[in-house]
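Posting for a labmate who doesn't have an account.
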Amino acid sequence: MRLLNVQTRRLEEYLDDGIRSHPYAILSHTWGKDEVLFSHILKKGYRGGSKKVDGCIEQAIKDGYGYVWIDTCCIDKSSSAELSEAINSMFRWYGMAGVCYVYLEDVPDGKDPFDPESAFRNSRWFTRGWTLQVCGCAFAPCAVDSC
């Protein structure tokens, strides 16, 4: 498992037993255009510019976490073996995370989530099948930010 160090903005690799001594935050999100990918971070480290990744890192720092896990950044999807292993490990990775942040890209800031017609209730994130897995095994989902 790779984690993104919030201070160095570089990826670090850990075995599951080593993760316990490196508490991390995990991000649940839907893919959009212009995602920050593993290949981008591997070359130069993360240099900022993505509201989603920046928001996750900033919140993790505020919450006292030194690492974050974001699928787009931490999984080498060009390797079918690694992608398969990651898919099979996600339930465990979400369960071991100290906190799970949810990024709702399609929800404007400041809207009332309790309004039945709100963008929050109609977010694309709630239509994805894997969100049940996230909610079932993560400690405390909470919204990081929205656009």
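Reply:
Got it, the structure tokens are right above this. The mean pLDDT is 84.
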